[in-house]
Amino acid sequence: MKRLLCYFIFLCFIFIQTPQAMAQTQFYKPLESYTASLPGEFSQIDPERQEALRAIGDYIVEKRKADLPVQITVICTHNSRRSHMGQLWLQAAATYYEVPKVHTFSGGTEVTAFNPRAVAALERAGFKISKTNNASEPDNPLYETSLGQGLENYRLFSKKFSHPQNPQKDFAAIMVCSDADAACPIVPGADARFAIPYEDPKLFDGSPSETPQYDARARQIAREMFFVMEYAKNQIAVWQAGQK
């Protein structure tokens, strides 16, 4: 009888506590809905591109095998659009696939500002983003970004890739524009460097195609960052199974 009572109390604890615990780590509903369909789009990534993305995944796997943190800085020229998208989507993918100790950053070869059009595209995808004026750099505001209740917030703004907020060593550099790729054949402190350029949505600023093009670029980057992280999660699982 005592055993049955203990079991009943245990079940009550699970039913009462689990929904609350889950709620603390869930994406916001719009972001949850957006990300749920991304794995079904992996077939849209051409084989050559998939190979380049798997190389990033292999870097993540090797770091996790060594029980080291994974630090990745996403770099484009102005740190205004594609690099911020890459940083957020890679972090979201690590959260989605529960790959631990992944920390993402972004930077540019020069400083401008996080472009409001890119901010709006990420908000449409489901991120919650709030703008804060930057007293020291009025033209380069700060953006507090959240993926969901109970999840870490990220402060985004335009900065050089060598900014003190970014890792100075033991990180991977992902070059997401051709100009930055050409300008930085070597990224100081990086122990790996990958080039996966994306078309710049800036080309469509002020045109009727502006919003759909920004949404398309955000979707493409999301899809590919989720591909990277799903691959890494699966490879880590295979490795862990082999250790037993």
- Kindly estimate the percentage of residues that lie in beta strands according to DSSP: 15-25%
Number of helices: 7
Helix/strand-derived category reads: alpha/beta
Main beta-sheet annotation: 4 strands, parallel
Shape: globular
Spans where pLDDT lies below 50 across 5 or more residues = 1-24
Widest sheet, order of strands? 2-1-6-7
Report the CATH architecture: 3-Layer(aba) Sandwich
By CATH reckoning, the class would read Alpha Beta
The H-and-E topology, N to C, reads as HHHEHEHEEEEHEH
Evaluate the radius of gyration. 20 Å
Overall mean pLDDT: 89
User: What do we call the CATH topology?
Assistant: Rossmann fold
The total domain count is: 1
Number of strands: 7
Helix share of residues? Answer: 40-55%
CATH homologous superfamily name?
Response regulator
Model description:
It is a single chain. The chain is of the alpha/beta class and 244 residues long. It has a single domain, classed as 3-Layer(aba) Sandwich (Rossmann fold), CATH 3.40.50.2300. It is built from 7 helices and 7 strands. It has helices spanning 2-23, 29-36, 47-65, 82-96, 116-125, 178-183, 210-243, and strands at residues 70-76, 102-108, 128-132, 142-146, 153-156, 171-175, 190-195. The chain has a 4-stranded parallel sheet. It is globular, with a radius of gyration of 20 Å.
Describe the secondary structure blueprint for this structure.
Blueprint: H1 2-23, H2 29-36, H3 47-65, E1 70-76, H4 82-96, E2 102-108, H5 116-125, E3 128-132, E4 142-146, E5 153-156, E6 171-175, H6 178-183, E7 190-195, H7 210-243
Parallel strand pairs: 1-2, 1-6, 6-7
Antiparallel strand pairs: 3-4, 4-5
Helix pairs in contact: 3-7, 4-7, 5-7
